[in-house]
Amino acid sequence: MVFIADSADVAEAARLGEGTKIWHLAQVREDAVLGENCIVGRGAYIGTGVQAGDNCKVQNYALVYEPARLGHGVFIGPAVVLTNDTYPRAVSPDGSLKSPDDWTPVGVDIRDGASIGARAVCVAPVTIGAWATVAAGSVVTRDVPDFALVAGVPAKRIGWVGRAGQRLVQDPADPAVWVCPATDVRYREDAGILQEVGHETGGERQ
User: Fold this and answer.
1) Which listed residue, 34, 87, 172, 202, has the most CB atoms within 10 A of its CB?
2) Rounded alpha-carbon distances, angstroms, from residue 43 to 64, 99, 180, 193
3) How, if at all, do strands 169-171 and 139-140 pair?
């Protein structure tokens, strides 16, 4: 069953998957689609038409503006912002208040298993690769590869992470091979792209 806290504001036209929970003061706008077993924390905002796969977590006070797309198992940390306006202005050049017809929203695309740390900002349009991790407080202004660990303002790759979220360790016998200390799964790097040995990478979404 779906759980919606009494103080949450969920549009009738939003679609929520089985087992999804919307907590206090959260807002889910019209035509948003959330998969099964998602969690939307206190005070979080899910914009009109945002799409999220199964098992996503949007933590307290995160702002997910349309047309963001989240794959399966995506983690959005507390107070994260996914923007949607490349050239933000309240007014047009003539000084008149901008209307929705005066600009075109652009979205953040987050692939399966990726995590966005607390208070990070992803500046649209940008794609966060599958199982990547954006460190807390970072500002992402360019696409992030699968399994990349990025940090800073603007965010830059500082390492690799595996599916368990832990930073990978380079194999001393083969510098192109990286190993997860939690699972012992091996990954191979080639021309700035990391792939799990024996598996194809890249997030699929509903």
Assistant:
1) 34
2) 12, 26, 35, 37
3) unpaired
- The distance of Cα 112 from the centroid of its chain, to the nearest Å, equals 9
In 3D space, the residue among 119, 99, 107, 117 whose CA is nearest the CA of residue 50 turns out to be 107
CA dist 205 and 38 (Å) reads: 14
How far, CA to CA in Å, does 38 sit from each of 14, 15, 19, 101? 14, 12, 7, 32
Identify the active-site residue in 72, 73, 120, 146: 72
pLDDT in tens, the chain (206 residues): 999 999 999 999 999 999 999 999 999 999 999 999 999 999 999 999 999 999 999 999 999 999 999 999 999 999 999 999 989 999 999 999 998 888 899 999 999 999 999 999 999 999 999 999 999 999 999 999 999 999 999 999 999 999 999 999 999 999 999 999 999 999 999 999 999 997 654 444 43
- For 193, the token pair is 């792209």
Give the predicted TM-score (pTM) of the model: 0.92
User: What does the alpha-carbon distance between residue 65 and residue 110 come to, in Å, rounded to a whole number?
Assistant: 13
Alpha carbon distance, N-terminus to C-terminus of the chain:
20
